[in-house]
Model the fold of this input.
Amino acid sequence: MKITGLLTTLLLLLSLCSCHLGGQGGDGKVNIIRYDKTQYEYIEFNSFDATQRMKSDYYPMTKLLVENILEIGSIADDDIQVKFREYYSDSLLLRLMDDVETKFEDISAIEADLGKAFASLSNELPDVALPRVYTQLSALNESIIVSDTLLGISLDKYMGADYPLYKSFYYSYQRKSMSPDRIDNDCIVSLLSRNYPFDFTQTPNLCNLMLHIGRMHYVAAKVLGVDLQQQLDYTDNEWKWCMENEEEIFKYVVANDQLYSTDFMVLRKYLKPSPYVQYFGKPSPSRLGAWIGARIVEAYVERNNVSLRDLMGIDSYNVLFANSHYLNAIV
Done:
């Protein structure tokens, strides 16, 4: 498969949208810009004041939303305001926006959680520049949007797994992660992915992609102060199945020549969200490749006693894998 196709797949796996657009201090305080409220005011009431704010104060957010997320044209188009309101005029989207504004009237808890996460990230990885954070209504497109200086949280993608409207568009395994308590996690993973992209000078095979994605999840867990089970959002039964079958899982990958495979279908089955991994049946959890990668990274850290900064500085996936002695650790 072409490298460009794999890059697209990887970005989808990490739910990351990037573009080139000042920073947020790492002092534990995050003041989230409520761009979503201006959006809502404009769409619901055709407010002139909201229109002006979207063109001036919030121009970078509007440009990113119009051109990169909704893809409805250029911010410079004469009729872009009309297109923008028409896009959100669907009755289901209007209902969704009303529900979002009610549910997220107060986001102080999100600000507090994200402030702690950013402070921890700055302490562990001081080279990562912290972005300005804003909330938006992406019409069920991207969950987290990251640019050089901005991070956008699409509140309409975090209404909760049981939110009735989601059931018309998403499977249960997809809805599982669409909860407000996943926002800080998704922000940290997206920031790490933005600052430490996959190195395409190395072969984008299953092993390297698992290590790349697994390293992001491992570091995110440490930054957030949670264990891997919580970070990957696995149930107790899913985690138990993984741990009880860890040796057999990895031996299956090796025995079936999948470890260094670049086959799109193999990569998809291990890395994309799904009800389960087809090779192992219904007891297996989604994104098993991320779990394998994180476990290899964990083995490397335990054997070599490195900091998170040193871990993220390793520029060879082969070195990371070889020095993890992973198979020895699980046998």
Q: What stands out?
A: The chain is about 55% helix and 5% strand. The radius of gyration is 21 Å.
